[in-house]
Amino acid sequence: MAELLDPRLVTQLSRHQLTPRQRVRGRFQGAHRSARLGASVEFADVREYVAGDDPRRVNLAASRRHGRLQVLLTEAEDDAAAQLVLDRSASMHGGKARTAARLAAGLAVLGARDGVRLWTVDRATDTDRLGGGWARGSAALAIVGALLRDDAADTRERAGDDPADGNSSSGNGTVDAPAGRPDLAAAVRRAVRTSTRGPLIVISDLLFGDWEMAVMALGERRRDALVLQVLGRDELEPAIADDVRLVDVETGDAVDVGPQERVRERYAAALTGHLDAVSAACGQVGASHLVVAEDADLAQVLLGELAALGHVR
Amino acid sequence: MTLSAPLGLLAAAAALPLLLWYLLRPRRRRVPVGSTFLWQAVEWPSTAATPWQRFRGDATFWLVLAALLALALALARPGVAVRAQLGDHTILVVDASGSMLADEDGVTRAELARREVADLVDGLAPGQEVSVVLAGARPEVIVSGSSDDREVVRALARASTGHGPADFADALTLATSLQRPGERTVVHVITDGELPGDAEGLAPPGTGIITVGTDRPNVAITRLASSAAGAGDHRVLAQVRSFAPMPVTGRVVLSVGDVPVVEQPLRLAPRAIEDVVVTIPASGGEVLTAHLDLDADATGEHPDALAHDDLAQTILADAREVTVLVAGPGNTFVTAALGAVPGVTVETAAAVPDDLTGVDLLVADRTSAADPPVVPTLYLAPTGYPDGITVTGTAELPTLTYQATDHPLLDDVDLTGLAVAEVAQVDAAELTALAAGPDGPLLLAGRVAGVPVVAVPFDPMVSDLPLRPAWPLLVANAVSWLTGSGTGANALPAGTVATLDSRADVVRADPPDGRDTVTVTVPDGLLPTLLLDRVGIWRLEHVGGPEDGRVDFVPVTPAPDQSDLARRRVSTDAVALDGGPVEAQGIASLVRPVVAIALAFALGEWLWTHAVRGWLHDRRRSRRRRRAERAVARVGAAGGPSGGITTGWLPTGRREVG
């Protein structure tokens, strides 16, 4: 997977792990604090001995204090398989698509120990497509790479696009039929309703009208959620040098803009307002929000920012 | 709908350049982007052009096109046919008398008349014309054959309403003269009452009457007179008349100059008259002003709809000693009546002496006087008249059928029922008969050889005149009129066309309300006339000629017949002068509504460009946000992450990496 991640980064990532920021209630024994009692060494409570208890768990000090035999209770440790919802719509083209794919690959490496369920959502020929699969263990990176390649090839085949470009435009200023906007909220809702209790990560640019629905879907269950909002450099700092007509590759909407200072100021205000709104919405559902530029340092994002947010240790 | 100016539709051709402009609008380079979500609120049209792009008729184009077409329609002056009391030539006689200044809930009757005219001419169809005769004290044609309704309205707005009566007889004669053969002429009179009797006969057949106003209460000063009472005092008569149907209280304030000297309370019964007679200390030549100050009635309103008749002014006369020589066999009634006039010294003689030096007034009682007269003379059945007055016979028991009402000699003098045994029938071309019967004049006044004279062609001793209350008044008025002393300047009612006794080249008259000076050129050999149509003191300055620099002051009082605002009003439809009914179709103009629609479209285009588009975008975003917040609330209610969990859900904030 050299095309996605540098081997040195993979080595570095393999020393870390995606971790939930809350107790989990997993199906299998793992390495994360569970909401249940179990057999770890972490003290949880004491209770009176009853017949059948393991005599090795009798706590003499507690028994002396209570005057009756007391046994020690410890916390359980469960697995916390992560889920990754990757927006692969037409708007996530070019550098954004590559950065999103690399983020997904890096997160697969970080979550390889417990496993990562990858959900890819895109739209072709007027149909939403939800793909992906599980990646676990030492082959997680390779599996994710394969899933992303297969998914992209299938999408291009269905849409008939040029594989070199990565979006539905012909690249010469003319735009073919709009690619359409997949329902990211439905994909998130699908992921939320699975029995997998680990972190739920959404990678998208959230530059569409119903982005709130996708964020709100994260809050339907008590999920430990993270929103990675990937934005292109031309979206963070647009360079409009002439009067142009911007055409949305997903909806076909056209907007006439010019190089005026007022345009720049109003766009900057709109961008700030949008990011604030996304951040506030994430806060309301208890999700973390991280804006990732398409040319961001991946190691800094995965090992610096996510660790600071408590998602990686 | 009809179009008065169909060529105005050619303006719709401006839609072609508009379409071309939209076709030639800048063709922008199309740049595909991942999302235009954030750009929606930023859209900024530009002017760089790549010609002949495909037509895209957005909302602004259709709005501008609609505004353009509406303007083109307005230029074509659209209208709809309506029934209107208009003919080929419509003559409007508009009342401009003083009563039209009455207040009707905040507007004057004159303004109501203007509105009636505006409504009438609003339906003026192409080919129809309107003339307007302003019926004031001196009627005039202010619009002659105009087909422009706005010109009519503007002319009426410029016309001023005087304080005098309207001369409808002259106005209707003028209106009749405007009729043109071959045209269907319709005459409307817009007034606040009925036509006077003398005018009804002159009204063209079928004249329509449009009445304005309602019966309004009013109180007026109908008379203000003064006379020198000697010792620096003046006797003042102020007559106040109520035209209100309810009792009225208030006060009349008399001022000399600007200083109030008397305030007399008033308590007037409905439609009653009260004479206020007071003696005030004042010197001659000062301006005496009487002003009404009325109390509000129970409803808080003042029972006074007409303002200009609440004030009257006159000029106090200088006290002057007059010597009167009574020549004749002797008459106690004459000498007693003369002796009662303040400032008069009476001397008697059996005959008229040759030297009349020191005599201000000669009374020729049953004797012959000098021919021609050399001093002002009162002839009482003289045995001989000067040249210009000839006796043609005598008549016994003459009856009085006419008495002048507007001559100062007969102020307050009532000769009704006068009994005379015998009267001389005189013929005097230079004198005016002030009282007369079928057998000839009973009282004459005028000038003979430039000297004022009054002639009574019967012997008062063979009549009941000396026994009447009118006698001392007539004698006092005769002294005043003949010598010009004793009483104040003769006040004239508003609307009087005064004959100016001037031998100057030009007379400049300054109206009391500060309007522009009226300049009257004195014609050769004739006396000039001046219309006094405003209440107050007129200042007349004589310029040029032998009387250069002479200044006269003429007090003008309210016209007595204009203060009664309760009148019978009967509106009638007009009939064309040819006898046929008025069935003409007028045109109600739609220009203003269409222009308003055009402006609304233009405003809509501006709002769409500058406000609505951004507002719609913001509204869509707000709606989405509210929907999301509701979803969050539902999640919270179900025990979700925002439900107060303190562990496991860490506070988050936006972090940016890049």
Question: Any overview of this molecule?
Answer:
The complex is a heterodimer of chains A (313) and B (658). With 313 residues, chain A is α/β, with parallel strands linked by helices. Helix content of chain A is 34%, strand content 26%. Chain A is built from 9 helices and 10 strands. In chain A, a hairpin with a 5-residue loop joins strand 8 and strand 9 (254-257). In chain A, helix 3 (95-110) packs antiparallel against helix 4 and helix 5 packs parallel to helix 6 (211-218). An 8-stranded mixed sheet of chain B has the order 19-18-20-21-27-26-25-23, with helices on one face. A 5-stranded mixed sheet of chain B has the order 8-7-4-9-10, with helices on both faces. The model of chain B is unreliable at 46-50 and 638-654 (pLDDT under 50). Chain B has 658 residues and is an alpha+beta fold. Chains A and B meet through helix 6, helix 7, strand 8, strand 9 and helix 8 of A and strand 2, helix 9 and strand 36 of B.
Question: What are the main properties of this structure?
Answer:
heterodimer; A: 313 residues; alpha/beta; 6-stranded mixed β-sheet; two-stranded antiparallel sheet; 9 helices; 34% helix; B: 658 residues; alpha+beta; 8-stranded mixed β-sheet; 5-stranded mixed β-sheet; 36 strands
Contiguous runs where pLDDT drops below 50 for at least 5 residues of chain A = 159-175
Kindly provide the radius of gyration of chain B, computed on alpha-carbon positions and rounded to a whole number of angstroms.
Answer: 40 Å
Helicity level of chain B, as a percent range? 10-25%
Shape of chain A: elongated
